[in-house]
Amino acid sequence: MPYLRASDLPVEPAGARFRALLARPGILGIPGTHNGLAAQQAKAAGFEACYLSGAAMTASMGLPDLGIITVDEVCFFIRQVARASNLPVLVDGDTGYGEALNVMHMVRSFEDAGAAAVHLEDQILPKKCGHLNDKKLAAPQDMAAKVAAAAHARRHLYIVARTDAAASEGMDGALARAKLYVEAGADAIFPEAMISAEMFREFAARLPGVPLLANMTEFGRTPFFTKDEFQSFGYKMVIWPVTSLRVAALAQEKLYAAIAKDGGAQNCLEQMLTRKALYATIDYAGFEAFDATIVKTVVPEAMPQG
What we know:
Blueprint: H1 14-23, E1 28-31, H2 36-44, E2 50-52, H3 54-60, H4 71-85, E3 89-92, H5 100-113, E4 117-121, H6 140-153, E5 158-163, H7 166-184, E6 188-191, H8 197-205, E7 213-215, H9 227-233, E8 237-240, H10 243-262, H11 275-281, H12 284-294
Parallel strand pairs: 1-8, 2-3, 3-4, 4-5, 5-6, 7-8
């Protein structure tokens, strides 16, 4: 029973657990989990870490991914996902919500909320999805200062520096930025919007010894590659950031259309998670049983005396 019972909580800090996963051979697959239930389902499927995408968080709030949401709003998602699953959570930190001091505040807030890792990107506001056009980049030294500030603020948080420079500055520009960010204190690099296997391979070959994160988002500029393929390219992590939200959103869209058309959801039962399966996922019985061991009915044995 996660979160409420202290004996069920991890002893090691989230960042340390994330580092331990990366210390093993092979590549770490990190699915996007846009809420606590999704995180529990990812854990049940065998994943050992999960990801909170800025695009998924904002879309779930009915907002575009343009740097609108705040640190506190992201912390709400972090607490939800970390508590529900006990998995180490990698969090999308956008541009750090400001400059150096704001980045430090973000790091402290994210760690306190239960995050294991964060990635920062070298765009300026208003930021855009990495797979869209006309992204505006910060000066390399300005981004390096943010990375250094994050490193000063963290106790255990794993820091991933994302560069969106490949589209506008080419491979040489993206690699020069990546090396600067590593020197500033980044633990890993996230080269965004690579458009071919050759680009993924070249980036890894020219940055030996640095853990790399690949983004396998749908409907973007990156062709479909599998986890094993990314490993063969030289990558240590791969995320599927908005996949769970896309699937859930389409299912909801179809449900609402069916209710409007049929006057009810009677034709959608086969597409629903049953009550029994839902309760098993969220451990309803475990919470109920534990509550019974704490809250016991005390029956008076006699009339109280005035």
